[in-house]
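Archive maintenance. Older records in this collection stored only the sequence; we are now back-filling the structure field for every entry so that each record is complete. The fields below show one back-filled record exactly as it appears after the update. Entries are processed alphabetically, and Acyl-CoA carboxylase subunit epsilon is next in the queue.

ARCHIVE ENTRY
Title: Acyl-CoA carboxylase subunit epsilon
Organism field: Micromonospora costi
Length field: 68
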Amino acid sequence: MSAEEPLLRVVRGVPTAEELAALVGAIVVRSRPAAAPAPAARSTWARSGRPAGVAAGPGAWRASGLPR
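Back-filled structure field:
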């Protein structure tokens, strides 16, 4: 591709400057690598309903229901 050759070419229609800007913006956003979403922090309420520190193994289901 030469420096004089355009990156985009309108094949049909006559887009306005705003329409071309929206198209270029959409292409730029889509061409960027997707960032991994940050893990959501669990609320205190959600953490309170889950047993903490119970390891998997024999008797783990029983230990998960016992008070700490």
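Update note: Residues 13 and 19 are 11 Å apart (CA to CA). The helical segments are 17-31, 44-48, 60-64.
Entry marked complete.
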